[in-house]
Amino acid sequence: AQKVTQAQTEISVVEKEDVTLDCVYETRDTTYYLFWYKQPPSGELVFLIRRNSFDEQNEISGRYSWNFQKSTSSFNFTITASQVVDSAVYFCARRGINDYKLSFGAGTTVTVRA
Amino acid sequence: AAGVIQSPRHLIKEKRETATLKCYPIPRHDTVYWYQQGPGQDPQFLISFYEKMQSDKGSIPDRFSAQQFSDYHSELNMSSLELGDSALYFCASSFAREGAKNIQYFGAGTRLSVL
Lengths: 114, 115
Prior knowledge:
The structure holds two protein chains of two kinds.
Chain A: E1 4-5, E2 10-14, E3 19-21, E4 24-25, E5 32-39, E6 46-52, E7 59-61, E8 64-69, E9 74-79, E10 88-96, E11 103-104, E12 108-113
Parallel strand pairs in A: 2-12
Antiparallel strand pairs in A: 1-4, 3-9, 5-6, 5-10, 7-8, 8-9, 10-11, 10-12
Chain B: E1 5-7, E2 10-13, E3 19-24, E4 31-37, E5 44-50, E6 53-57, E7 64-68, E8 74-78, E9 87-94, E10 105-106, E11 110-114
Parallel strand pairs in B: 2-11
Antiparallel strand pairs in B: 1-3, 3-8, 4-5, 4-9, 5-6, 7-8, 9-10, 9-11
């Protein structure tokens, strides 16, 4: 199986600190897609970003930024100036070009304390 | 914007009972996916449908079946429920014309508790 690994199980920070979530993936495909989803305490899964394997540009969206390094098979996610509302479980996921399914990492629980 | 609608949101069943979960995709989306998320686990893919045909199958027990109807909504039928079936069941939908890059948008999930 082509695994997605999120080595950090839990991260706890104080409000306004930056937090970086690591995601490392395995793949035999030359074309694939990477995703981040957020699962707040209410339980729903919220799409955050999609990145394809041939676009290594980093991306910033407000306080969120993503760093894709194909050479190290990593797709890391940084929350800048964290807020209490950022408290959630964050999942990294991968999908191959011929796959229908998403393969998720184990998730990282982020707790932001006021 | 309309999102993926799942019903019911919560369901409590006894062992050996049956359950039916429903999913209404985002309008114009033609592909539906089902995932199972156990407590403290990541979502695991069960099955998907495109244009009412099964498109992919994951680790779905034989006791479970699913289908997609002509209006693109989908139902997951679960029989002979076991305690281990207690989980959060997600439905997601996407637009197949986007190809492999399509984004799966998830519903709020159905939390099934088997007692």
